[in-house]
């Protein structure tokens, strides 16, 4: 309906700048001189609409006087002769000076005449905007309004800083005008309605946030926290709660409107959002909506008029056209995702809220159905009455809807007649469950499942006596009996109790879905945090390394594994998730448990990773994320995989993994084509390698790899590279330019503000860097230190100058322990452990190295170490950076540290070595083949290493 917020914001900023310029000229009138900036604003915003809208100034008298502007739709412009006397489709505009009262003008006779003739009038004094039209009863009324400043003086003062004004009080003006210019347009496209409701929702969110910690919301907030077992703490928690509140209101209204509009007897009156609760079938949703929408809560927040505007917009929808489009596809891609992307894109990204493509959902449901039939010997698959299904992170209900469609398909041909619909309804209400922690998608899930039931000729009762098995709950808690905390709303308590009855008593046989990659802004309770602890302990495999087990999706995997393998004793888990767990060293215990707990582990690796492959397939073709869509071509950054885990009643641990790669742009089609294929034909067998951590991906490694010593077993001391976090300020190719910048920084005559203006990177505050405090401390100390302008290995074959500051956090990670070992005559081997992408050959550097010289962090292994303990003539000596076994090995061979260093370099650059061990190099430190290590003393070994060292010196040169 309108373009991005960025374009609208830019138009508003230009409007403010133009008004400021006109006033600053000193020759302007109060009203007419400002027509130009206003016309530019209206035309720029009108150009973002479909159809486009443009304004015509000094409108001719068409029986009611001369409005200042008329708003025409592009379709009113025809080739050939103009249509004389054609009324502007989108209404007219009356402009007054900034010190006039737009509200009084809107109530005057002149505007009344315009409204009677043109239907819609936008009155403005440049700072107030009042839309005058007809209410639901056809009577003249003030519709939507927008205020930039309370007085003309305040307005002119704000205009002195156009950009600040545009991103502050004026932030909503562009969208307000887009709505006003579209007010007469029929709404038929779901995405247009989504944009419009999101625009109103943003207005509502701004009002809620301006109210702060309103007492009216305290009870609702506490009730949600207690019911979901979380705490909305800090700034992010408050933002999440406010966003949740507003989304619940707007999705509640939208869902109620859909059900109201689709009644068996279509309504002829106007939609009333105040009675929307009667159309919401889930009691907890009705209760939440009722609590939030109470006048005592809405009025202090200023939300009543915004919801009135929303209801008026819904009354403008062409229902036949809208629902024909809405029903052809699915509710989520046509409405929910555009709404959330427009309403709060940052929150969507933060939560990892991505609509799962239809091809993925259908594929996963088909694979589960086939596993039930082929592996668990349940002929009816998902249609069997003993198959209880759970989507623990159901979002907007896509998996539940597809499961119900699959059940209906499985029942076809059984001669059940009308009983088939009863079986599908029974499944939807008694054995197909969805858990969702966020109220907004919870609303949509009920809506989508309800619409699916209608399409399957098994509609839920309109009187609310039947509801789908979608519950507002935290899927990661409540699986064991525990004392229940009293809740202020009985409906919330009932919802919690019914959800926990499913968790504790239902014989769940299938768990599937798309777990969230990130957490909402709340603090998890102990039961949830402890879920991943089981994966931190190992039996045979190496212990986990890193922080990967903290990712939220891991908790969902553990919940599902425990429920199927430990409680039900058989069943199927099918999740699509981040694919890091397939071979990452954080997940060794997780993989070990799955090989023990499941009879079959099948992996559809969907790739599409920005970090490992750069979203490029092995053949060089583009390899987008499976979550890429025409509206969001980037999708998500990390690679993904579908895991299907099968546990049989007569359990035998898996000794291999079924695995296949899917690459390129045809992945969705390939999933569709192979959904019904036999597992034996689809996957190759991969035997996980124990010493590498049991990776579920085929891993290239030589048979002798684990007999060779790793780099840390040869060179005991290493250092991560320097991380400035302020490269643009502290690093330069030109030394004089760097000196000039640092000299300014240490000039006490220059204020913090002036330094920030000249060098923004130096004065940008972060969580670990208080820019003002750091500069104050350094100015007090004095400087700069001329000896600290040093050469810096910035990128491969790219040496620059670095100002290495020993004090404070101006240099983020200075590596003070590394600095003494950078001296003339010393060299370092620079390499990495566990790269994101394919392993890169080691670099040789003779100066201080940068952490970002290699993907995921570079580590420096120096040949020599400065020895401050053994001084000669008061000066430090150097000693070889070798472990005792390595030093003894070299002594026997008559080789020195330099020879050995260059042998290692030659090995790491050997193409055959890198190809044979490509998989192992991605998972741990490089290992170096050393004949007869650690006891070798044969002359042939010595000669071979000398030849290799010679080659290494050629590489280093």
Sheet having the most strands? 9 strands, mixed
What is the number of helical segments per DSSP (H or I, 4+ residues)?
Answer: 36
Secondary-structure-derived class = alpha/beta
Query: Which radius of gyration do the C-alpha atoms yield?
Result: 34 Å
Mean pLDDT: 88
User: What is the percent of helical residues?
Assistant: 40-55%
Strand order of the largest sheet: 10-9-8-11-13-15-14-16-17
* Proportion in β-strands: 5-15%
The parts where pLDDT drops under 50 for at least 5 residues are none
Count the beta strands. Answer: 27
Ends apart, CA distance between termini: 61 Å
User: Overall 3D geometry?
Assistant: globular
Description:
There is one protein chain. The chain has 957 residues and is an alpha/beta fold. It contains 36 helices and 27 strands. The strands form 6 sheets. A 9-stranded mixed β-sheet has the order 10-9-8-11-13-15-14-16-17, with helices on both faces. The protein has a 6-stranded mixed β-sheet with strand order 1-2-3-4-5-6, with helices on both faces. Strand 26 (864-872) and strand 27 (875-880) form a beta hairpin. The longest helix has 28 residues, at 234-261. The chain is globular. The model has no long low-confidence stretch (mean pLDDT 88).
